[in-house]
Amino acid sequence: MAGYVVALTGASGARYGLRLVEELLKRGDKVDLIISPAGFLILKEELGLDLASVGVKVGLKGYFKADYCTNLTHLASNDISAAVASGSSVKKAMIISPCSMGTLARVATGVSGNLIERSADCFLKERRTLVLVPRETPLNSIHLENMLKLSQMGAVILPAMPAFYSHPETIDDMVDFVVGKTLDALGLENDLYRRWKK
After folding, report:
1. Which end of the chain has the least Cβ crowding within 10 Å, N or C?
2. What is the pLDDT of residues 65-106, one digit of tens each?
3. Domains and their CATH numbers in the chain
4. CB-facing half-sphere around the CA of 147: CA atoms within 13 A
5. Which residues pair with 72 in a beta bridge?
6. What is the H or E stretch that residue 4 is in?
7. How far, CA to CA in Å, does 63 sit from each of 22, 57, 66, 97, 118?
8. What count of other Cβ atoms lies within 10 Å of the Cβ of residue 57?
9. Sign of dihedral through CA atoms 126, 127, 131, 136?
10. Which helix (H) or strand (E) holds 134?
C-alpha cells in the first residue's frame, strides 16, 4: 500500500484534486490530504462542499458516497510539524491539484510558508515525485518561468488541459482525462480516459 500526499490549493478546479483522492483511496492507497484556506473556499464555491464546517473525512465520505475514506488523513495546512514536512517522510509522491500560481511560485523559489509548500520543498530536495497540476489561463511570463524552473528541478508540470479526441460528453469525462494523466505521471495503471489509437 503506497502513501501519497495530495494538496488542494485556491486555483479553480477542485474536482481534479478530489477525483484524484477518490481514485487513490479506491486503489487502497493511503492519502495525506492538505487543503489550503483558499482551497476550502474553492471547494465550497465550485462544489458546494463546506468541509471546513463538517470536517474533511465526514464531508468527503458523503461526497464520494463511499466507505473507503479509512485510508484518508487530513493534515492542517498550518501544521508544519507534520511528518510530511520532513525529508525523512517515506511518502511515494506528492500531487498539488489544483495548483494555484501563488503556490507554484512559492515552491519554485523555496519559500515555504505552510505545510503544502514545505512538503513540496521536501519532495524536490529528496528527488521524489512531485506533480503540479496548474489551473490558470492565460499564463504570464512569471508563471511560465516558474513552471520551467520547477520542471528543471524534476517536478512534473501537468496543466489541467483535457483532450477532446476521446469525445468527452460530460465535465466528469474531462476531469477523468486530467486525473488519468496524473495517475500516469505517478506510474499507476488506470482506464479513466480513452487512449489515442489510430
Report:
1. C
2. 888 889 999 999 999 999 999 988 889 999 999 999 999 999
3. 3-185 (3.40.50.1950)
4. 19
5. 31
6. strand 3-8
7. 10, 10, 8, 18, 28
8. 15
9. positive
10. strand 129-134
Residue written as grid cell 515555504: 112
Q: C-alpha cell of 193?
A: 480516459
pLDDT tens-place string over residues 140-166: 999 999 999 999 999 999 999 999 988
Q: What are phi and psi of 4, to 5 degrees?
A: -125, 150
CB 29 within 8 A of CB 198: no
- If phi > 0 it is left, if psi is from -120 to 50 it is alpha, else beta; for residue 27 that is alpha
What is the model's pTM? 0.96
d(C-alpha 102, C-alpha 161), whole Å: 19
Q: Which helix (H) or strand (E) holds 99?
A: strand 93-99
- C-alpha grid cell for residue 187? 506510474
Residue with grid cell 503506497, as numbered in its chain = 2
Residue that has been written with the C-alpha cell 473556499 in this structure: 41
Kindly tell me if the per-residue pLDDT of 39 is higher than 90: yes
Q: What is the 3-state secondary structure (H, E, C) of 62-97?
A: HHHCCCCHHHEEEEECCCCCCHHHCCCCCCCEEEEE
> pLDDT (tens digit, 9 = 90+) per residue, 118-135?
999 999 999 999 999 999
